[in-house]
């Protein structure tokens, strides 16, 4: 008798497009070894993004495992989710304990923009223009100004202008070859990690709705904000939550139990302009960040215990997988943890 094929989820196609970054790469080449440390200390490791080669195949495969309800990637016996802490480490940018980017200001303060980008107020106002449904500065103008600063040896101004261009073209793109007001506001705020994670999650979730190793050494984890039991993220387009309760294992801690239903039940997902009151509620929640340290999260073994693993397997039976299951390479013996192992080592 022929075996009945396993039910699978439909796969979803994602398109990856990256415009050539020639002008930014040329500016990046002007950053000398001595100046690069100054740049990295101020803006993180964003220069490396200009030369990063991205293979779309692994990304395309990973995205098929997205779990819309839990805002994570659910595999046959494990879960992964991008986290604030991982983004902070990858970018070498600290998460500041304050409200991140909420929305663009109703009126542009050219004086504030000019000061942040080391331009004159007249230079900003004369070159401020619309593009689509946003306003800001063209990449062509900013490249020209950065080249002039480099010729004068004014590296502080050059660094700021190059950094905001990377923000606008690579991290938070909206219109081609354009740096809009939202990007400039995020840049001035200096707390880009929550916004970047929000945009990542929002884009993945909205698309799904329509149809070398790094050692992570985390001691404090953001687990909640205000009255929310999870972390509501504010992006450039919309808000979406993620559930840190699903991520302790990938941050190096033991995943002892399955998450409680109340911890993953609350869902945040909306376009910012559609619900200003909800946006304000999320913004206020970020004034009270709930952080857990290693003494609360437990021992650092980066493993998942059977209670959690069985819960994931039960969820897979409902969610289904996009591809055939794989048999484990070998049976793992039961794991017994010594109570004498400290929370941090």
Automatic annotation (TrEMBL):
<feature type="transmembrane region" description="Helical">
    <location>
        <begin position="155"/>
        <end position="175"/>
    </location>
</feature>
<dbReference type="InterPro" id="IPR056647">
    <property type="entry name" value="DUF7745"/>
</dbReference>
<feature type="transmembrane region" description="Helical">
    <location>
        <begin position="181"/>
        <end position="205"/>
    </location>
</feature>
<protein>
    <recommendedName>
        <fullName>DUF7745 domain-containing protein</fullName>
    </recommendedName>
</protein>
<feature type="domain" description="DUF7745">
    <location>
        <begin position="215"/>
        <end position="317"/>
    </location>
</feature>
<feature type="domain" description="DUF7745">
    <location>
        <begin position="24"/>
        <end position="212"/>
    </location>
</feature>
<keyword id="KW-0812">Transmembrane</keyword>
<dbReference type="Pfam" id="PF24924">
    <property type="entry name" value="DUF7745"/>
</dbReference>
<keyword id="KW-1133">Transmembrane helix</keyword>
<keyword id="KW-0472">Membrane</keyword>
């Amino acid at each position: 008798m022929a075996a009945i094929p396993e039910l699978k989820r439909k796969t979803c196609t994602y398109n990856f497009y990256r415009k050539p970054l020639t002008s930014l790469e040329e500016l990046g080449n002007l950053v000398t070894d001595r100046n690069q440390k100054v740049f990295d200390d101020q803006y993180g490791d964003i220069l490396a993004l200009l030369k990063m080669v991205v293979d779309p195949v692994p990304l395309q495969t990973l995205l098929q495992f997205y779990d819309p309800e839990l805002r994570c990637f659910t595999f046959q016996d494990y879960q992964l989710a991008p986290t604030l802490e991982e983004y902070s480490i990858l970018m070498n940018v600290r998460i500041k304990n304050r409200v991140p980017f909420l929305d663009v200001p109703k009126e542009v303060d050219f004086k504030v923009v000019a000061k942040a980008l080391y331009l004159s107020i007249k230079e900003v106002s004369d070159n401020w223009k619309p593009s689509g449904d946003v306003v800001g500065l063209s990449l062509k103008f900013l490249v020209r100004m950065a080249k002039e600063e480099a010729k004068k040896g004014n590296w502080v101004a050059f660094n700021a202008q190059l950094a905001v261009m990377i923000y606008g073209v690579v991290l938070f793109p909206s219109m081609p070859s354009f740096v809009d007001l939202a990007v400039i506001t995020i840049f001035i705020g200096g707390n880009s990690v929550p916004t970047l994670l929000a945009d990542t999650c929002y884009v993945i979730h909205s698309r799904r709705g329509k149809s070398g190793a790094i050692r992570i050494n985390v001691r404090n984890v953001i687990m909640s904000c205000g009255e929310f039991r999870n972390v509501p993220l504010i992006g450039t387009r919309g808000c979406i939550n993620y559930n840190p309760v699903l991520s302790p294992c990938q941050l190096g801690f033991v995943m002892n139990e399955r998450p409680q239903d109340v911890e993953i039940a609350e869902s945040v997902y909306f376009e910012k302009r559609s619900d200003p009151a909800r946006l304000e509620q999320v913004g206020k929640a970020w004034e009270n960040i709930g952080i857990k340290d290693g003494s609360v999260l437990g021992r650092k073994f980066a493993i998942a215990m059977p209670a959690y693993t069985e819960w994931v397997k039960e969820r897979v039976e409902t969610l289904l997988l996009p591809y055939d299951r794989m048999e484990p390479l070998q049976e793992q013996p039961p794991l017994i943890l010594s109570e004498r192992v400290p929370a941090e080592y």
